[in-house]
Specification:
Elements (H helix, E strand, L loop, with lengths): L4 E6 L8 H11 L7 E6 L9 E5 L5 H9 L6 E6 L2 E3 L5 H14 L3 E5 L9 E3 L6 E4 L12 E4 H7 L6 H15 L4 E5 L4 E3 L1 E2 L2 E2 L1 H10 L2
Parallel strand pairs: 1-2, 1-4, 2-3, 6-10
Antiparallel strand pairs: 4-9, 5-11, 6-9, 7-8, 8-10, 12-13
Length: 216
């Protein structure tokens, strides 16, 4: 797996305080966490976590920062996760390996791990794999979702537009990419593996719940 897949944790100076918890949870619950090269981005703030390479982008904009980080990735595929995604249960090694195998077999551009959500109603199509693995419609409104995904590095580079926020990339980027770049995206739908530690720029109730459970 190490030759095919890297991990890229997208953070920023403002939210870098989350990383001391994120890294512990990720290494505990993400099955192949110790078998892949792992990277963390910030803009200027230095961080140092065992087993993680730190990329200082010196770039305030999200998509610009991401492009700089992607230039450091040496594998053809990258598992991208945001710093406020706190894992709360195991994502087994076999789950990630199976997703990566499908990506390679099907020459996918992206393989997303998602929880059931109404925004994908009518936009997911059977694939012939297990009944929770779907092909995402070319015109889905959230093809560029920043939920946990294995991305083809060359593909995501083509999708990025300079000076976009993560929300613009998800919404406006989905429309743009759907209209201009034919893509093949699969989605594996499971009960959520995570909670979001931030809500509208504020620490969420889930953040405190996780800390009480995991970091007493």
């Amino acid at each position: 797996m190490k030759n095919d897949l890297s991990v890229l944790v997208l953070s920023c100076d403002k939210y870098s305080h989350l990383l001391k918890y994120f890294t512990v949870l990720f290494d505990k619950y993400w099955g192949p966490a110790h078998d892949c090269e792992k990277y963390i981005t910030t803009e200027t703030s230095p961080v140092d976590f065992k087993g993680y390479n730190h990329i200082i982008t010196n770039e305030q904009n999200w998509t610009n920062s991401l492009m700089i980080a992607l230039e450091q990735i040496k594998t053809p595929y990258v598992f991208i996760i945001l710093d406020d995604i706190f894992l709360i249960r195991e994502m087994p090694y076999n789950t990630i390996q199976n997703g990566l195998n499908i990506v390679k077999q099907e020459n996918l551009d992206k393989y997303t791990f998602h929880y059931p959500h109404e925004v994908f109603n009518g936009m997911l199509h059977p694939t012939g794999y297990t009944n929770n693995i779907y092909k995402v419609d070319q015109n889905s409104g959230y093809t560029m979702t920043t939920q946990m995904s294995i991305w083809n590095v060359d593909f995501i580079k083509k999708c990025l537009l300079t000076n976009e926020s993560p929300w613009q990339f998800e919404i406006e980027g989905s429309t743009r990419v759907n209209q201009t770049i034919p893509h093949k995206i699969f989605m594996e739908v499971n009960e959520a593996y995570h909670v979001e530690a931030m809500t509208r720029g504020q620490l969420s109730v889930f953040y405190y719940d996780v800390l009480n459970k995991e970091f007493k």
